[in-house]
Amino acid sequence: MEERQVSIRQGTHNDSMNTKPVLFGYYKGATWRVRIALELKNIDYEYKRINLIGPEGKGELYSQEFWLLNPLRQVPVLVVNEHAIPQSASILEYLEEAYPSPKLMPTDVLARAKVREIMEIIVADTHPKQDFTLLKYLGRQAWNDSCKHAITKAFAALERILKETSGKYCVGNEISFADVCLVPQAFNANHRAVDMTPYPTLNRLYASLNEVPAFKRAEKLCMDDVPQDEQAHLQSIATHFLTAYP
């Protein structure tokens, strides 16, 4: 990570002092969600990769500079006008309020609640159980088993919900934050070799979303950020998912 001084300012968003947002992240999961939202809203931003793999206590994640951005030492973090916004859900909410067009939350209050329900299942109930920091406590096999259990439990619930809420996309026929959160998690499920056959609605939505240009751009940006030794493997996962579960 390049040397740069970051001061955490207090105050409110001020359009008159806008500078290009800076996204600190890694190619997987939560950062991917934010990249999709940035692409959907056509926001020009700068990206700084934070390497999450390496000895604990060393590297960019453990620098004093990054600690000032997020004391939890996690990504993503979006910096706007020297204001640091950690946590992907908080970033998505900020983007919706600061850049309201195109909308990624429905106008109808019940539809908005459904979007949040789907988001919470993925962001709060599923993703944390796949955090790589658990690997050292559980061991690789137990960690992989735990990841697959969390995903299958969540996807069983999501399949039932999406049968009722979905149109072309997760909630009706307009793209929302539910879709933004679904795609990276579905990709990760395939990475974990989860059998996706029981989730036809989810598979249909994933295929539809992968035809949306903003989602394609975000995936390419993520893949370009993948360490070289992982690129072929992850590209094969993406191809397999779309052909195995049409």
Give the helix/strand layout.
Blueprint: E1 22-25, H1 29-40, E2 46-49, H2 64-69, E3 77-80, E4 83-86, H3 88-98, H4 109-126, H5 135-138, H6 140-165, H7 177-191, H8 200-209, H9 213-224, H10 228-244
Parallel strand pairs: 1-2
Antiparallel strand pairs: 1-3, 3-4
Describe this structure in words.
- Residues 108-241 form the GST C-terminal domain.
- Its cofactor is glutathione.
- The protein is an alpha+beta fold and 246 residues long.
- The chain has 2 domains: 22-98, Glutaredoxin (3-Layer(aba) Sandwich), CATH 3.40.30.10; 109-244, Glutathione S-transferase Yfyf (Class Pi), Chain A, domain 2 (Up-down Bundle), CATH 1.20.1050.10.
- 53% of the residues lie in helices and 7% in strands.
- It contains 10 helices and 4 strands, in the order βαβαββαααααααα.
- It has helices at 29-40, 64-69, 88-98, 109-126, 135-138, 140-165, 177-191, 200-209, 213-224, 228-244, and strands at 22-25, 46-49, 77-80, 83-86.
- Strands 2-1-3-4 form a 4-stranded mixed β-sheet, covered by helices on one side.
- α1 (29-40) packs parallel to α3 (88-98), α1 (29-40) runs antiparallel to α7 and α7 (177-191) packs across α8.
- The chain is globular and about 45 Å long.
- The relative contact order is 0.13.
